[in-house]
């Protein structure tokens, strides 16, 4: 029997659903952000139904309290990277493609979203949700958000136009978020919210809805047919009841609700920027979408350190003063002409990152 025949048999029951498109699922790419309680369940579901490519992003390590809610983690895994471990475990569960990134989603190039059909958030903090929201919209990808607390939870989907996650936040939430966002580099402790009570059952219920929402999209590739598009379904576990509500678009939302048009260039990140400018006809007056930290200065003891690294690659500990341990002030630069003697790799420029050249967006991706 051919491998394809075996696959067809394996998925036979779900293929009996009239609108189900197994072939599309096998060719789908999902970005799963978060490998905790929800992430474990979502990864399991996506694997069982036969989604072709699952990329998992998480910064965290497995700890003892994860074990009771994460089907793929056990006591021997304490201290291992969640993203790597989860990716390995689902690959051993079924013959699927999966890769992973150990780090925060903010450390990846913002154009990473472009490489996927849909994004699923299995997150526990606003900063990461806000990031996923802004850049999945920018690159025109729908995303499904889920959250759990106690026996309760919620699921909602954001499409490629209209209401976005930021529209759902209160003025107070937005204020808190903008304070956090104004700190260029966040420490882990600052972004991790309190330890909320959760159970394996609420993770299983909410992740089931999130996965099903994503599957409906992947089978039909029509955002309008997602049952929860621009809506929120809240689940009250103690009474086993649901409330479904429409999410309202804020006309003055500071996130651009339209996706962008961009050009994509594959290039060698080891070449000097000067060579790239000539080779690809990039304007020397181009600007980076995010900034390079050129120097940092200590306000306490006047210590100065040359950095010249892309901001996404720096952690708070990288900008502590070696003399007095104070957090140093950052000097940043966005003009690429300041760095023409550097290669993108020397600057820690992330793969899939944007530059703006004469009002045009150009996505720079690594030549393989
Ligand atoms: Zn919005
Ligand atoms: Zn100092």
Describe this structure in words.
This protein has helices at residues 3-10, 12-15, 22-26, 37-49, 82-93, 126-138, 171-182, 188-191, 200-220, 273-279; strands at residues 29-33, 53-58, 97-102, 118-121, 143-149, 152-158, 231-236, 241-246, 262-267, 287-297, 304-310, 329-335, 353-357, 360-366. The strands form two sheets. Strands 3-2-1-4-5-6-7-8 form an eight-stranded mixed sheet, sandwiched between helices. The chain folds into two domains: 2-246, Rossmann fold; 262-366, Structural Genomics Hypothetical 15.5 Kd Protein In mrcA-pckA Intergenic Region, Chain A (Roll), CATH 3.10.290. It is built from ten helices and 14 strands. The protein is α/β, with parallel strands linked by helices and 368 residues long. The structure holds zinc ion (ZN) (2 copies). Residues 164, 166-167, 250, 253, 255, 257 line the site of one zinc ion (ZN). One zinc ion is lined by residues 164, 166-167, 250, 253, 255, 257.
């Amino acid at each position: 029997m051919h491998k394809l025949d075996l696959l067809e048999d394996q998925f036979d029951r779900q293929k009996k659903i009239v609108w189900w498109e197994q072939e599309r699922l096998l060719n789908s790419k999902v970005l799963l952000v978060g490998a905790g309680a929800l992430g474990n369940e979502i990864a399991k579901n996506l694997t069982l139904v036969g989604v072709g490519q699952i990329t998992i992003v998480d910064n965290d390590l497995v700890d003892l309290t994860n074990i009771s809610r994460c089907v793929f983690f056990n006591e021997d895994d304490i201290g291992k990277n969640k993203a790597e471990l989860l990716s390995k475990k689902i690959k051993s569960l079924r013959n699927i493609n999966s890769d992973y990134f150990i780090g925060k989603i903010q450390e990846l190039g913002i154009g990473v979203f472009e490489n996927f059909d849909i994004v699923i958030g299995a997150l526990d903090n606003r900063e990461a949700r806000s990031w996923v929201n802004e850049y999945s919209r920018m690159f025109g990808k729908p995303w499904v958000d889920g959250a759990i607390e106690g026996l309760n939870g919620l699921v909602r989907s954001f499409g490629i136009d209209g209401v976005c996650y930021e529209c759902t936040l209160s003025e107070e939430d937005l204020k808190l978020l903008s304070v956090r966002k104004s700190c260029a580099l966040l420490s882990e402790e600052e972004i991790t919210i309190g330890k909320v009570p959760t159970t394996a059952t609420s993770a299983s219920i909410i992740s089931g809805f999130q996965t099903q929402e994503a599957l409906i999209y992947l089978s039909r590739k029509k955002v309008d047919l997602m049952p929860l598009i621009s809506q929120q379904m809240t689940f009250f576990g103690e009474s086993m009841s649901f409330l479904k509500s429409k999410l309202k678009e804020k006309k003055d939302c500071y996130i651009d609700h339209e996706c962008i048009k961009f050009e994509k260039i594959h290039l060698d990140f080891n070449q000097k920027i000067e060579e790239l400018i000539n080779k690809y006809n990039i304007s020397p007056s181009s600007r980076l979408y995010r900034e390079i930290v050129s120097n940092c200065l200590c306000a306490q003891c006047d210590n100065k350190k040359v950095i010249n690294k892309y901001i996404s690659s720096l952690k708070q500990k990288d900008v502590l003063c070696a003399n007095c341990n104070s957090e140093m002030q950052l000097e940043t630069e966005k003009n690429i002409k300041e760095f023409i003697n550097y290669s993108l790799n020397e600057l820690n420029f992330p793969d899939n990152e944007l530059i703006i050249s004469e009002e045009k967006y150009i996505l720079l991706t690594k030549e393989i």
